[in-house]
Amino acid sequence: MNLPLKEAKAALKTVFEKIFSEEKVISIRVIPKLDDVLGKAEKLKVHREKLAFYRDMNTKSEARVTIKRGGCCCFGRIEIDAVTYYESEISRIAKEIQEVKAQREHQNSGMGIVTFVSRLQVSRSVN
User: Fold this and answer.
1) Of 104, 100, 64, which is closest to residue 84 (Cα–Cα)?
2) Contacts of 87 (CB under 8 A, 6+ apart)
């Protein structure tokens, strides 16, 4: 069952408080379902590196650096400004990431982190 984050957090707290009735739950963090954001974030990182590379190339060159995009092999490919292309791709991917996060912020991944303190831990740290 995939509960929304708030409900999952409350359920997790209830379970831990029942199982470990002698301990105190300090915090609970339910991990949101953002697995597909990882691929987009990696692509964003690569595009940022390429943008930095082409900006550097433009400072060393008299003409702006272009890249070929679209089409297949030799057919239908057009030359476009490299910096402009990567700036627009970075903007597009960052927007996609924000949209996915907004859609998924209430879905949990089925994983969570619970921090609690037991009386045994407290007595050991005091003594």
Assistant:
1) 64
2) 51
Express each pLDDT in 22-42 by its tens digit. Answer: 777 777 777 777 777 888 999
For residue 41, what are the CA distances in angstroms to 38, 69, 101? 5, 22, 12
Largest interatomic CA distance in the chain: 77
- Rounded CA separation 114/28 (Å): 5
Domain boundaries, given as residue ranges, for the chain: 1-32+108-127, 34-106
Nearest to 116 by CA among 49, 24, 31, 38: 24
Amino acid 106 reads H
Task: Report the predicted TM-score, pTM, of the whole model to 2 decimal places.
Answer: 0.62
